[in-house]
Design brief:
CATH superfamily of the largest domain: MFS general substrate transporter like domains
Radius of gyration: 23 Å
Shape: globular
CATH class of the largest domain: Mainly Alpha
Helix content: over 70%
CATH topology of the largest domain: Growth Hormone, Chain: A
Strand content: under 5%
Number of domains: 2
Structural class: mainly alpha
Order of helices and strands: HHHHHHHEEHHHHHHHHHEEHHH
Strand order of the largest sheet: 1-2
């Protein structure tokens, strides 16, 4: 009984510090999607067009790519928890800066800084969790990051809706001396400060402590997270051996005969690109504008955005439950098929929108059908590509190139995300139904790609990948 109690006590401690680290994932989701509710207000306040607003929304993704690119190096230089503190500080400062911009370019600059923090959080959380989690619980604890991201998205949409309601349903109305959209962007400072608090209290990663020559402290942390019944000397020796023998792979290790890269690397790049090219982040960055463009008022459009975020959470739980049961490949195929039908249906529904006397509306039954189709799209994405792509990217590459290949695939994902995000405002003004038809085509192509090129990794040891 005492051993079981001690084990549960250690597990509870690990769950706590894992959840604390995953606040970075919450901020990742919150800060990347909070712009959704503010887009209309920003566009009206600064009197800018579709191209400029698309640039301001998407520019954060370029900062994210940079933050993800160098975040791992900073974590090795400063430590995992110190780097988390830096990211939390950047989240806080950028939130206040976005809340109080004096020009559109100033807002863009603060969004780049916020994006840099998002990029750091995207690598710091998973790295820290993997290094402190006991092997038996690593998979489930690792899912905290993705769960935190979708929770962050949902909470940001709920906060946006509540702020808009307090301001009378218009994000350009004033509330406590500022316009409502400014409070939306500034609210992220609250979870950012909580992240700073928790990052200052959780223990440093044992791997980093050993890397920096603090083996005694590493022993204490290992005892906290894995228990006293573990052979701590053997664990420390194991980590030291890995650190001595591992070689950080470089881009040159990815070279092959197929267009300069190994075929498996191209598969990872294309998987990452398809995850974004289906247009999922249009829902999380622009859904408020999207629904307003077909005649739904601001307040209701923000409520719809929140409901889509809840569906995203439900889909994520479904994926976590099924990914080890039915496998990665079947889930991707189910997701691609569902997304193709949903996006095609949305494209058809949006084609019925009409403008009468300067007011845009979507008649019945196309209005309800468009709403259902958009949420079905979110559900199928969340239960498949949203989770499974990250699982596959962590498994599919051979050990010798895994880190470098993951970096290239993640960079491809940020670039595809940026392309979709920056282009949507102009494309939707040009032809919204055709824009969604294009996303449906990408979903169909993703089905064909998985059928032809993606192999199942369920149940295979990492050492078997090649």
């Amino acid at each position: 009984m005492a051993t079981r109690y001690t084990h549960q006590e250690h597990l509870g401690h690990v769950v706590f510090i894992t959840a604390a680290a995953a606040i970075g994932g919450f901020l990742f989701g919150y800060d990347s999607s909070v712009i959704n509710g503010a887009v209309t207000g920003i566009q009206r306040h600064f009197q800018v067009g579709a191209v400029q607003i698309g640039f301001v929304v998407a520019i954060a993704l370029l900062g994210s790519a940079l933050g993800a690119w160098i975040g791992g190096g900073l974590a090795d230089r400063w430590g995992r928890t110190r780097s988390m503190q830096v990211a939390a500080g950047l989240f806080t400062v950028s939130s206040i800066g976005q809340m109080l911009p004096f020009a559109i370019w100033d807002l863009g600059l603060w969004r780049v800084i916020a994006g840099f923090a998002i990029g750091m959080a995207s690598v710091l959380g998973p790295a820290y969790i993997a290094e402190v989690a006991p092997p038996a619980y690593r998979g489930r604890l690792g899912s905290f990051q993705q769960l935190a991201i979708v929770l962050g998205i949902a909470v940001s949409q709920l906060v946006n809706y509540l702020i808009a309601e307090l301001a009378g349903g218009d994000v350009n109305n004033h509330l406590w001396g500022l316009q409502a959209w400014q409070w939306m962007l500034g609210a992220c400072a609250v979870p950012a400060l909580l992240y700073l608090l928790f990052a200052s209290t959780i223990p440093e990663s044992p791997r980093y402590l050993i890397m920096s020559g603090r083996s005694r402290k590493a022993r204490e942390v290992l005892a906290e997270v894995e228990g006293d019944d573990v052979d701590l000397d053997a664990r420390i020796a194991e980590i030291q051996h890995v650190l001595r023998t591992e070689r950080v792979p470089g881009l040159k290790d990815l070279r092959g005969s197929a267009l300069g890269l190994l075929p498996i690397v191209w598969i990872g790049i294309i998987l990452s690109a398809f995850q974004q090219l289906v247009g999922i982040n249009v829902i999380f960055y622009y859904s408020s504008v999207l629904w307003q463009s077909v005649g739904i008022n601001q307040s209701n459009s923000l409520l719809i955005s929140f409901s889509s975020s809840i569906i995203n959470i439900i889909g994520t739980f479904i994926a976590i439950a099924l990914v080890d049961r039915i496998g990665r490949r079947p889930l991707l195929l189910i997701g691609s098929a569902g997304m193709t039908i949903a996006l095609g249906t949305a494209a058809w529904a949006f084609s019925a929108s009409r403008e009468i006397g300067g007011v845009v509306s979507l008649p019945s039954p196309q209005g309800p059908i468009a709403l259902i189709a958009a949420n079905v799209f979110v559900l199928f994405f969340a239960l498949s590509w949203g989770v499974v792509v990250w699982v596959l990217l962590g498994e599919m590459f051979p050990n010798r190139i895994r880190a470098a290949a993951l970096g290239v695939a993640a960079a491809a994902q940020w670039i595809a995300n940026w392309l979709i995000t920056v282009s949507f405002p102009a494309l939707s003004e040009w032809n919204l139904p055709l824009t969604y038809a294009m996303y449906a085509l990408f979903a169909l192509l993703s089905f064909l790609f998985v059928t032809k090129w993606v192999k199942e990794t369920k149940g295979r040891r990492l050492e078997e990948m090649g």
